[in-house]
Input
Amino acid sequence: MSETATLQTHGSTAPPEAPAPSALGGLGLFTVLLGAALPIIDFFIVNVALSTIGRDLAAGEAVLELVVAGYGVSYSVLLVLGGRLGDMLGRRRLFIGGMAAFGLTSLACGLAPDAWTLVAARVAQGAASAMLLPQVLATIQAATAGPRRARAMSLYGAMAGLSMVAGQILGGLLVAWDFAGTGWRAVFLVNVPVVAVGLFLASRAVPETRAQRPEPIDVPGTLLLTAALVTLLVPLTEGRSAGWPLWTWLVLALFPVSAYGFYRVELRSDRRGRTPLVPPSLFRLVSLRRGLLIIVPFSIGFSGFMFVIAVALQQGALLGPVPAGLALAPMAVAFLAVSLAGPRLVRRFGTRVVSAGGAVQAVGLVLIVLAVWRDWPGLDAVSLLPGAAVAGAGQALQLPVLFRIVLSEVPADRAGVGSGVMVTAQQSSLALGVATLGSLFLGLVPVVGMRDALVVTLLVQLAGVVCTALLSLRLPRQVA
Output
């Protein structure tokens, strides 16, 4: 019996999907991809606006890091729960509700009168994102099949990667444009009209799907997963700016305890035939397990790079928000162009495309390191162009294919929990990337200078990219 079939017949843990959900048409796919782009863009859009926010709201470095970390932590903590609620209450309903909440919290961010109000609004915005994003992949899994699903998953992966780069570019443009004197507030207010369009389209084009007999919420599992992610992400994201006080080490020491407790509770629930928040039996799927092992270092390196390059270009190379954002435009263009060819390459070469992407991205990073070493402090879009373009092409050969691989064997009735697990791993890794590589870079700057700190950080990222290329050799050769 296949592992997918095993999962589907494991006790009573897999409630059947509601009969024959409506197919996801072209307009519906566009709508859910639009909804998915918003939370991803908003993770990166503030990177080039932080200095402006700090001046306007008289916020210190620790509070500014909370503007980033508050969003990332609440987003990561609630993603799996968001996927389970979609299975229970209906994915279209949660998609629309999450998008509406995202629009309202974006408005609150844009109108925040002080730094702490902005932090609170960002935490709420992360929670809204966690309700919205898992419904996208779950809807694609439940309402498409065959070549349509493969195409939709490839488009999701392309959109996700492009949104990560485009968020930083868009942030720079909006801050510099200063529309109607809004300044940095425009990076949040721009979401409001986009959400209005998305809600209109979703009410007409997104089909409703859900599990026919959903299991109740796994309360112990939810609380323990929350504890595990909070005890890992909060001290790592706030530790450096706070000077690593005792509380950061005490909280971090609780992480392995809460993580082990979460594993034991979920394993016991799975063995008793219930549906835990994250079923350990789901990890019997080779494609999911090995795909997640690659997504983690990929996402850590990607988000760390985006944060560090934004700081280095603005504070070291003294570029404004627009030049700093546009310096990554070649990466976005290359990512889009190559990702469009991804499905054809996968059909021909299988998952070896991911290995090739790791090699190509490594070459791009080497070119960026050479440009930094040679041109600093005169680093600009021209000197970064070759490396950024090559790195973007390599990323496009990895990320969209990895998303497709991870969910390729997940049964439709577990689409919500499967997508929740994947985006939780990705989002937690994005937050870890800012915390770890960002802290490494900022900690090295006073010691060795900004150029050498940037080079060292990029070389650490390069090691992670090599790791993804090697791990990809263990992926199943073909993907559904």
